[in-house]
Amino acid sequence: MWEIINDFGEATKRVIKAGFDGVEIHGAYSHLLQQFFSSYSNKRNDYWGGSLQKRMNFALEVIKRVQEVANEYAQDDFIIGYRLTQEEIHEHAVGYDIHDTLQFIDRLADTHMDYIHVTSADYGKEIKEVINGRTAFIFVPHVFNVQDAVDGLQYGDMISMSRQALIEPDFAKKIKEGKEEDVATEITSPEMAKSLAFPPKMVDWLLDPKGKNPVPKGMDYLKEPVSD
Q: Which pTM value belongs to this model?
């Protein structure tokens, strides 16, 4: 376990050497750190598991090691954040719920990291209240237009988005320039999709009729992968 924790430190050292401005420790989407926080996957009964508090220890030790490396090798403005998925609900079991997550976020906020990034549009108010200004909160309001972004800022110090940034790469730039009415919120033609250079495999995934994610508005016209 300690070797793995040190590996996170070594990865941080490489990031610093490569000239990056910071790192986001990935504890979301069922990656290793989430697996240790989840009672569904973590069946240990030692320092690394058992109680809720012990299931936090792996992530907290990783954060501590990353911070130690940053303090030694990086500039003072090097950024460290942590990303987590707010709940882990399976069909017949619960890995952790929002009540567990809020306790975890409370511990994370005391580690003096630069931000906490939660991968959901729910519970923004509760998370903001728990953090209580101790660190920045990156909120994911599932932005589809400018107003969604504005609404998200009532909870988050920053907002995170992906789909809308893909549809409108100049989303922030147009807002900054006062051109909100020019922000594209859907793909309106094959030519527009081609100009955005979506990889064919990505288009196939977005349009998978068996997929669980809704197809972004304006993309359902695509019947064939976009190519040059």
A: 0.84
Q: Which of 79, 108, 140 is the last residue of a domain?
A: 140
User: What are the C-alpha distances in Å from 160 to residues 34, 83, 137?
Assistant: 20, 11, 10
Using DSSP, state whether 167 is helix, strand or coil. Answer: helix
3-state secondary structure of 24: strand
Between the alpha carbon of residue 54 and those of residues 46, 49, 57, the distances in Å are: 8, 5, 5
For the beta carbon of residue 53, count every other beta carbon within 10 angstroms: 11
CB 120 within 8 A of CB 140: yes
Neighbouring-strand partners of residue 84: 27, 118
Same-domain pairing of 59 and 120:
yes
Q: Tell the residue number behind the tokens 């900054």, with chain if given.
A: 176
- pLDDT band for position 85 (50/70/90)? very high
Q: What distance in Å separates the CA atoms of residue 87 and residue 101, rounded to the nearest whole number?
A: 7
Tell which residue, 114, 139, 108, 115, has the closest CA to residue 126: 139
Each residue's pLDDT tens digit, 115-146: 999 988 789 999 999 999 999 999 998 888 99
3-state class of 77 per DSSP?
coil
Tell me which of 117, 140, 163 is where a domain ends. Answer: 140
Check residues 225 and 211 and name the one with the higher pLDDT: 211
